[in-house]
Amino acid sequence: MELALGLVLLLYGLSDILFRFLGLGAYARGSRREPKVALTFDDGPSETTEALLALLKAHGVKATFFLTGERARKRPDLVEKIREAGHQIEDHGQIHQAWKLFLPWVEWRHMAENPGRYYRPPHGLHTPFTRPFARILGKRVALWDLESKDWLDLPPEALAERLLYYLRPGSVVLLHDGPERTLELLKLALPRMLELGYRPVTLDELSPIPLGPRLALIRGLQGFNERYDRTHGLKRVGLGPFDFLKVEAKPFPWPPFKGESALELHLDSERVVELTPFQALRQIREGMKELAAMIERGEIPRPKLLYGFSYQAEDLRVLGFQPWPYPLPPWATRVAALATMWQLWLYRGDLPNWRRPAASLRYMETEELLRRFPPSTPASPPPAPGGGETPPPSGPA
């Protein structure tokens, strides 16, 4: 009896990890190649539905509403208004009491009583029966790849800032129809979203894709990535759909500049892997120009140099980055090489290739950045080969 109970609990736990936390097989994002995003609202209709509809109409935006059956039956007038406004209506189940769904016969009724081609479980909860039931009922399980956190007691300004920071092309954004905070958050974020070039569309227009193992793992690691950004104080350089450069202000870790102020460069791999080499080069040029402007405006403390590890040495050389001329600890290059292989497999599916050039440290002094990419003018073309290159630093002053 105890063994059987243990196996049942294990099965429920594995189902939740694989299908809710990772989202394996769920429709949770679209293509990263176009700046389309899907705004999705759970739990409605509610007393704030009409205000949400008015806000969306004011900006010419269509969204997707995942409605609960019991609330929809209480307010059929609001359901009709959502439909008349041209928004997509999908299934959020009958009730929003997730604990009841651990009973298979309750979960079946919960999923079967409402129409919809997409089904989003309350809280994303999965049992071992959720996916089989969805298949039998002809429904696709729809999750998300970006939480708005609109259920937290935080200022709408902070929530809007976070949403814009992590919004990507193809994002399915989880919002809620009910909290007043959601309305205030969207009043701030939606105009800025449109200004940056994003196009909010319905879930159907986004054409979401089911998450395979790698995409599911990427989704599962988002919380870790967000904690890393927060802990290390990373800043995005530009908030546009394809702006992929991030910087971390920190003391330089190795001699002879150990302790000097520096900016370590990071890339948002989910954005950059969808770009062609030409697009990526053009985008990073714009990023370097914006970084120079951020330094000039005082948004980032003025560093002595910028640096980062990369196996794409020649691409960085075109931008003005030079090889680091001093010895580095062997572990530093090994860690960089392993991190590069992991990133290439995770985001591109590339298997380890020992013939690929090893990741090496590249740097640029801040004065060279400002010379090449003056903030008040378009990004400057690179100088002729052999001319205007950053000389090796002579050591701390």
TrEMBL record:
Pfam family, one: Polysacc_deac_1
Protein name: Oligosaccharide deacetylase
Region (Disordered): 372-397
Domain of life, source organism: Bacteria
Domain NodB homology: 35-99
Comp. bias intervals (Pro residues): 375-397
